[in-house]
């Protein structure tokens, strides 16, 4: 197995974490809870900034750790803090988002900058695949008494404006969150 192949598979490994890295992961989990509580909610939409903590998890811990933590967070938030019941159907979107964050943002050199194109493509995948397709389908299955393509597309149409407006905001915030000097310094300190 050559170095290139080893490097490609390392991204999808589940590495052991040091105590410092576990503490950093716990801080990101707490940040995710806080950002979830600080969401902007109106009668027709809810804007959350949890994606910032998820992006940092993807950058530092790769796709598998990010996915496992995000699904566990979804379960805990929904059952213990959200007042609802966790649904495996809704968790599919969380799982796919975790894989996307980790696959696009994880790097061999954690202190290296994440390229614009990676941020744009990752946010585009999450917007289209997760927010519009998977989550809309999950909402249709869970809450709609009528399950048809017309209902699916009408539900998607109501979700589309928020996603179009929020896409450039999420791209900019994600890029600057992943590439600011504090994050790069933490990368050098915790991931030598």
From TrEMBL:
The keyword Transmembrane helix applies. Pfam families: ECF_trnsprt. Keywords: Membrane, Transmembrane, Transmembrane helix. The chain crosses the membrane at residues 20-40, 47-73, 85-107, 119-144, 164-183. The keyword Cytoplasm does not apply. InterPro entries: ECF_S_folate_fam (IPR030949), ECF_trnsprt_substrate-spec (IPR024529). Signal peptide: none annotated. It comes from the Bacteria. This is Folate family ECF transporter S component. It comes from Fructobacillus papyriferae. The lineage of its organism: Bacteria, Bacillati, Bacillota, Bacilli, Lactobacillales.
């Amino acid at each position: 197995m050559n170095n290139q192949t080893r490097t490609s598979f390392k991204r999808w490994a589940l590495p052991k974490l040091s105590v410092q890295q576990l503490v950093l992961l716990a801080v990101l989990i707490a940040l995710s809870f806080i950002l979830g509580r600080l969401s902007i909610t109106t009668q027709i939409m809810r804007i959350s900034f949890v994606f910032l903590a998820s992006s940092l998890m993807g950058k530092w811990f790769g796709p598998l750790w990010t996915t496992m933590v995000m699904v566990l967070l979804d379960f805990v938030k929904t059952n213990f803090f959200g007042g609802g019941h966790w649904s495996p159907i809704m968790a599919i979107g969380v799982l796919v988002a975790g894989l996307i964050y980790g696959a696009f943002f994880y790097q061999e050199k954690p202190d290296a900058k994440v390229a614009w194109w990676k941020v744009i493509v990752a946010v585009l995948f999450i917007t289209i695949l997760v927010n519009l397709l998977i989550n809309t389908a999950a909402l249709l299955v869970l809450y709609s008494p009528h399950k048809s393509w017309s209902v699916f597309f009408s539900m998607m149409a109501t979700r589309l404006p928020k996603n179009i407006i929020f896409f450039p905001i999420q791209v900019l915030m994600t890029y600057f969150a992943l590439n600011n000097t504090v994050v790069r310094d933490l990368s050098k300190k915790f991931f030598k």
